[in-house]
Amino acid sequence: MQNILTPKHSTYTVSLCFEGGAAQRLVDAQKRLAQICGNNFLIEHSVPPHVTLGAFHAEPGALPGLQKAFDGFAKAARDVLGGQGLDLEFGGTDSFLDKVVFLAAKKDSPSFVSLKTLNEILHQKFLPIFEAGSNKNYLPERWLPHAALAVKLRPDQFKKCAAFLGHASDFALPQSARVAALSLALCKPYTELCRAAF
Length: 198
Prior knowledge:
This protein is of the alpha+beta class. It has five helices and eight strands. Strands 1, 2, 3, 4, 5, 6, 7 and 8 form an eight-stranded antiparallel β-sheet that branches. Helix 3 (63-80) runs antiparallel to helix 4 (110-126). The longest helix has 18 residues, at 20-37.
């Protein structure tokens, strides 16, 4: 008999990680919004600033296959970017369903095109082997590249964030960020499993 407390699968993400000053400015922004709205999920769970390219379910024991697929994707990503990495341009703050506040990638930028290409390649490599995560917003046809500033917001917390962002003149957000690496992470609890530098 199966233990109902044991999940049949875990959720993993593949993300782009930032380096340097922009990463710290995003952490500072996350902390400031956490103070304003009272939701410190990202800080409490030590989730570093990132852009999630995709989320996937895998059964226990599938980690070696997941890491192999990740390694193959990392090689393909380096090829797409010409071994040069990526300078991601941001276009401003936005939100999803009044539950997430984020810094969006600039839609008319070369980095946006590169991000969309990486998302498509990732899903081509992973979906034949692993199931897409429960949140289908990472699938290529629905994906909007972004770096989260506050997540899992209640309505009152979202209103506080929106009011602050609508009037804050001293809230410094980066205009761009250098992508340093790809990351494969377990979602709950957040645990980075491996990283591939550009």
